[in-house]
Structures are given as C-alpha cells and as structure tokens.
Amino acid sequence: MARTFSYCRVSTADQTTDNQVREIEAAGFTVEPRRVIAETVSGSVAAMERAGFAKLMDRLEDGDVLIVTKLDRLGRNAMDVRATVDSLAAMGVRVHCLALGGVDLASPAGRMTMSVINAVAEFERDLLIERTQAGLSRAKAEGRVLGRPTALTIDQQRAVIASRAEGVSLGVLAKQYGVSRAAIQRVEKRV
To answer: Cβ atoms within 10 A of the Cβ of 52, count?
Structure first.
C-alpha cells in the first residue's frame, strides 16, 4: 500500500510549517505525523543537500506519494526542482503539488506543467532584468552616479594618492581615514 509523505519547508527560523500542513490536510490528504518532514532551510540550497530532505529520500519507496504545497518548497532553481522530481520519479515516487491542482509532477502531464511554469518564470526573470537595465541606463543618461557612494571625498582621494606616491603604507592610510585597506586600493585603481 502506498504511503503518503509531506515535505514542508520554510526559509527562516521565525517562520513555521503549520500552514503548509493545514493546506495538505484541507486538500484531503491524510499524512501520519511521523511522515511529515519539516525543515528550516533556504530554498537556494539544493534539495539533495538539505538534511531533512536527504533523510526523506532514504525513507521513500516505490509507490509512495510525496506532497508539497508549492513547487518552491522543493527549491527556487528550476533545474534543481526538475532534477529532484526526476530522481523521485526514478524511485517510483509520485510527487503532488497542491498549487498545481495536485498534479503528479512525475507524470508526463506534470513534467509538461513544470516546463511551462519554468519557462514563464524564466521569462519573468528576463523581463525584470531588462527593466532593471533600462532603468540603470536612463539614470546614467540623466547623469546620476550609480553604485555605492565612495568612502572618501575627492580631496581625501587626492591626499591618498599623494601619500601613496610618497610610500605611505595601505595600513597607515586606512587607519588615518577610518576605512579598509581595500578602500585605499580602490582609490589607487581609479587613477
């Protein structure tokens, strides 16, 4: 008989997986408490590198069902999510995502759905990058100075360059101006 597991993940310690557990129950799934795997780890960490998920992989068997509330519980990276689902499918584990209508991600329809969602997410990311680049270009054209403000004023930078030409060390100058050695080196590189 197929066993049902749920994987619930949050990114920070001040968050809880309670809502995810309730969502799964509200969708009609009965998961024994010992089969609810909950962990606190960033979605940017590959699923197979997470301690809780790795233990879950050791417990899963052919015919089992794994339920997640959303795709991003498995990971933020589309390639990682795909690799994770493929690994589970190879083991004979069905993966249901509630946000996708409970579709089995390991099935042909589930793989197609994931591909479409990943393509849309990639498109949205590309649009965001395009808008950001356009905004930066416009700001430059308007004469705005972009990036982090320099730690030293123009006069201080001139004094640093003169002192370095006289052989004053990076450490001495960094201490004198209350900045890091790297800040002094950046002044030298700009010259």
So the answer is: 16
Residue 58 structure tokens = 């050791």
- Catalytic status, residue 11: yes
> Between the CA atoms of 37, 121, 29 and 65, what dihedral angle is there, to the nearest 10 degrees?
-60
The confidence score (pLDDT) of residue 77 equals 74
Query: One of 6, 11, 42, 169 is an active-site residue; which one?
Result: 11
CB neighbour list of residue 14: distance below 8 Å, 6 or more residues apart: none
Residue at 187: amino acid letter: V
Looking from the CA of 98 toward its CB, the CA atoms found within 13 Å total 19
Q: Is the pLDDT of residue 126 over 90?
A: no
pLDDT tens profile 58-101: 999 999 999 999 988 988 777 788 889 989 999 999 999 998 88
Place of tokens 């949050």: 10
The residue type at 59: R
Global pTM value? 0.64
- Per the listing, tokens 């960033």 go with 42
